[in-house]
Amino acid sequence: MEEEQSRQVRFLIVIAGIICAVMIGYNAFYVPEVPLSEPAVSTDIPSKSANVVSAAGVEEKMEAYVPSSAAAVLSSAVKKNSVSSSARKVKNGKKAGKVNINKASAQQMSEQLDGIGESLAARIVDYRNKHGPFRSAEEIKNVSGIGEKKYKAISSSITVK
Question: Domain 90-159: which CATH class?
């Protein structure tokens, strides 16, 4: 009985060794080698490139790759984080002042209202397009995602005209 178990263990060890040898051989001979000294990538949107000195001391041009689907998100994030030259006060990263929810775009709402992101701002605009202009600021609570708590947070920042 013990002899049978030791033979099975040796058999499993041999099989594991063969599998490891096959994996090492595959990686050594069939997987293409990736050069480490070429950090440059291409981009499908206009971007600034920089000359970078690699570890080998060679100056190379380096560009960032941004997929086109992410380009819009990136550009809106850059716009959100850019500082305006106007002398508006900023509260928690959002511009101060009342936002007319009957005329503001989704981007304006997401930039100027605390707690209102791009998707919620888009829902507000969709609601406005389907049901007409808001008759009161409190009507914004009918939009999915805006409850009493969120309304209280933004009520002092919104207006309807």
Answer: mainly alpha
